[in-house]
Q: What sequence folds into this?
């Protein structure tokens, strides 16, 4: 049994008949992150790649900026705890606490009105991608989504270049899946500058900001974007693709990179 | 133009051809809730039913317990602010702030290990529902999901009895959609005791807890549950249905209510 699924007994009703069957559902695991001995957050996640998730989450929140900033990451899977120690200490944590409070999900309202306010610079990467390459990447992306096939209840995310997938993760949360692939790259010392993000999930403003923070010029999803997601992608120079399905896709922002 | 969608110009690639088309995407709106003049949270939501959303959210967080508790709800749509005044004051807000901090999304880790810890009592409602009724309800549920059909980027939620839908809402967030229907019922003085929840979204632990808090005995989703969602539903006496699609459905907990 994989750690990310659990067997359950289900009463299945189908076309008039009914009966008990064994099935699997995705696990939902509370993971508490301590940063420099201070409790920061409890994420509900799929219990895989916990180290990547913790580091990726901290990077998304601006609490870790580079691999050299991470002194140690200790995972206690039994207790559902990750302890991260950083060089930069807890200086900015107060600010992040306040943002959690004022936004409920570490999703700062300050970000939404103007991309500039987030202190992020426009992505100027000259990288390009063809629609055929996007289709091939999504084909591989969906083939890798095993947990989704088994449980129907998780999201996938990948980092790739125009030819191949470099990091892949699944999680019950679309945010977590993306934090996991970024966290893995950070821990492995792989630069994400110029890489693409593939996701199964909706592209809201928060997802675009996660990509912008890592200098990702192309963000592609099987699902829909929101209007704020599109606006931020336009302003931040990110090429935004949605509804990538089979041989179809919509380009919502910076289509000059797609040929 | 509906307030919950925005027109965008899209570059559409399909089967080898490409061209610009007009399309609509779901809006993503930051709504800041003030409770008794203190800033509580900023939700990212679809900008409809803001009053219901604010009250439903506060009820989900235990900050509003009954309609009589709500003194006033003032919505300032231009500024994206809702001001709620309650009889009970801000006594419990400190606790909720702490929970936001320790859980990132108002999703308390304390809840997950045992349903008892959440202080919720088991739902003993003798109400029953047939699989045929569930199918009919879901047919109507999906017909009402207009915003989803237009944008592909939102969730729906409904409150119903075994015969008809009583409240329906859509939102870019699955949590928000459910808070909206509960909030509407609270504002309208409609008891939710014995009603069912229908949702397009995944059933995680948090969704089961929202239902349990309102004495909802049946929770049905088009999507998958998580293992914690199933465990809580079993413990709290909630009948949990997943993958309700056409003439099929899975019953994950308390199947005695389904006949």
A:
């Amino acid at each position: 049994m994989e750690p990310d699924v659990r067997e359950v007994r289900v009463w299945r009703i189908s076309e008039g008949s009914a009966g008990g069957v064994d099935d699997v559902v995705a696990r939902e695991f509370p993971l508490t992150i301590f940063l420099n001995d201070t409790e920061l957050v409890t994420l509900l996640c799929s219990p895989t790649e916990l180290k990547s998730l913790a580091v990726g989450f901290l990077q998304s929140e601006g609490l870790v900026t580079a691999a050299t900033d991470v002194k140690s990451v200790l995972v206690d899977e039994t207790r559902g705890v990750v302890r991260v120690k950083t060089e930069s200490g807890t200086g900015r944590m107060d600010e992040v606490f306040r943002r959690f409070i004022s936004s409920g999900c570490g999703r700062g309202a300050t970000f939404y009105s103007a991309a500039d306010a987030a202190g992020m610079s426009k992505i100027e990467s000259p990288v390009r991608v063809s629609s055929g390459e996007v289709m091939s990447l999504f084909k591989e992306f969906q083939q890798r989504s095993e947990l989704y096939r088994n449980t129907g209840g998780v999201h996938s995310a990948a980092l790739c270049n125009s030819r191949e997938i470099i990091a892949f993760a699944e999680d019950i949360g679309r945010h977590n899946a993306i934090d996991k692939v970024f966290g893995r790259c950070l821990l492995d010392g792989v630069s994400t500058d110029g890489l693409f993000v593939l996701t199964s999930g909706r592209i809201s403003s928060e997802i675009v900001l996660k990509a912008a923070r890592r200098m990702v010029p192309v963000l592609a999803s099987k699902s829909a974007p929101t209007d704020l997601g599109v606006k931020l992608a336009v302003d931040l120079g990110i090429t935004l693709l949605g509804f990538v399905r089979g041989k179809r896709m919509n380009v919502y922002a910076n289509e000059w990179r797609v040929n």
